[in-house]
């Protein structure tokens, strides 16, 4: 699988929030390779290729372990993103290697994270997505390979600019088909194919 990030993107500055984890550089490296080989390489998100190539994806690592410190780290990353121009930083990934290894607890935390954006009156300004090593879509079989579209090396919060999403959707002819296309891609690969690919960020 071809990695599509530019050299500029590879050397983009990163930040560490509450640095407690001894392997911050590893967390960033693995997450970057996951983006390059899976998200961009498999075209799971057609909008990701451009911002990766332009070096507009920011990687931040937090040593947070629980809801309160993860929420504080998220708010700090919100402030950091808003203080940057879209050309400097279009989107941010907050990687939390030590936080909420149980996906269902992590999923529950997302309600609190969304309330943070609401309290800050940032609805319509920023959007929040999430990825997790044990991600599961509601109502799907636990063994369904579809879950892997959102399975990242570490629990990760993704902050996106709403304006950028709007422009990307307008430029993409059938954004509503992305989910079904991704599922078809993974089912063609099968578990063995995914396991081989995941060695790229193991």
Describe the protein in words.
The chain is of the alpha/beta class and 202 residues long. The chain has one domain (7-201). Helix content is 45%, strand content 13%. The chain contains seven helices and five strands. It has helices at residues 7-10, 24-40, 48-53, 67-82, 103-119, 162-171, 178-198, and strands spanning 15-17, 57-62, 91-95, 126-131, 156-161. It has a five-stranded mixed sheet with strand order 1-2-3-5-4, sandwiched between helices. α4 (67-82) links the parallel β2 and β3. α4 (67-82) packs across α5. The longest helix has 21 residues, at 178-198. It is globular, with a radius of gyration of 16 Å. Residues 1-21 have low confidence and may be disordered.
What descriptive keywords fit this protein?
disordered N terminus; five-stranded mixed sheet; alpha/beta; 7 helices; 5 strands; globular; 202 residues
